[in-house]
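Supplementary Data S3. Sequence and structure tokens for construct A.
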Amino acid sequence: MTSLPSMIDPAFPLCELHRHLDGSVRLSTILELGQRYNLPLPAATLDGLRPFVQVSEPQPGVMAFMQKFKWQTIGMVNLDACRRIACENVLDAAAEGLDYVELRFSPLFMAETHQLDPEAVTAAVIEGIEEGRRLTDIKVNLIGIISRTYGAEKGWLELKALLAHRHAITALDLAGDEANFPGEGFVEHFRAARNAGWHITVHAGEADGPHSIWQALEGLGAERIGHCLSAVEDPALMDFLKKERTGIECSLTSNVQTSVVKGYAAHPIRTFLERGLQPSLSTDDPGISAITISDEYNIAAPKAGLTHEMIHHLQYNALEAAFLSTAEKKELIHKKQMPQEAKA
């Protein structure tokens, strides 16, 4: 496990709540699977492949950024590949020093390129996560995604694939093209998810206005909001988020790279903290953004104008907003504060 950088409190659990499994594929795995299965990769070396897979400058919007996912999913040729990618996600999260991570994935998105069965993909991902858990000391929960970009009808197919393995899933998310596929079309999907006992988190306020966040909260039952950037345009919404202690999953570098903010200093995370809201830090799609969670704490957060104290507060917020029981949170704290010799 890597040593924890100075901006991260080493005596408190390091948690990440917004990390896309299908946006966190190792560059080396893309290359290896591409060569093994004779896939049409744009380059034959890691250095040659990197500029096609990873973002090096801001893109002209969220959907332009998402074009990079083509190379994240190209290697998902069969269930073994999906299982491997899921396992490597856990190994990589542990190597970054995380104590707890919530990994999210869209089974339909992972299945689409090579026409796999979404339910079988879900099973393979779960198996890969379990393997990763056995090989590491990290705690992992899995979040299923309905990709709104496919529309509400296919959303039911995706939900069915996830519900077939409901006991291995902790929460449901709505992701994809927020501007063109509003949450109103998925109210019944999320009612079914809540009836299944799942937590709810929703991408909202990233590519649309505050009304999208309100709809996620009131129409879909969101307990946390992914990105939530446009909340700063609505003081009443910020008051509501503060009152309800709604977790906000902030991804600074991703938001700069998708051009939904003009730069780190323009990100509303400092405003959220100053207003008493509950933001935390996540990488979003580290395989595309070429970052680690440490980069977000040590590089991105200071660029966003956050003080050392504010950055520590983000770390505490992440544990508070995690989809864990009170007992599980206390266990993470206790384990983190144990003497090193007791952990050995």
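Construct B, processed identically:
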Amino acid sequence: MDNKKFAAALEKRTREFAVRIIHLSSKLPNTHEGRVIRNQITKSGTSIGANYREANHSRSKADFKNKIKISESEASETQYWIEVVVEAKMLPWKQVKAEHKECGELLAIFTSISAKL
């Protein structure tokens, strides 16, 4: 797969992940704590792809690297919030397992890209 195809596929994958996170966050309880975590996980989970898209349209290598690092950081944060959701017993593991796995894979991809820059 060439770089353009890889970039397009990863943009699509991160966008689909953002939609999955939005759906997951809508299942959180409508309590003060649930709303706080909903806001956090939605912001970080949707930011992964938004920053990756910006990286693909960056004006310099430094800007590209910065956006990739942000995507990596947001993926790590999203994975953290998914773990908090489970530990706080807001949703069961089986309901978030797929998103946790996908987030881990995205984190690994962005970590790998970042290490090569």
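DSSP finds four helices and no strands in the chain. The two ends are 19 Å apart (CA to CA).
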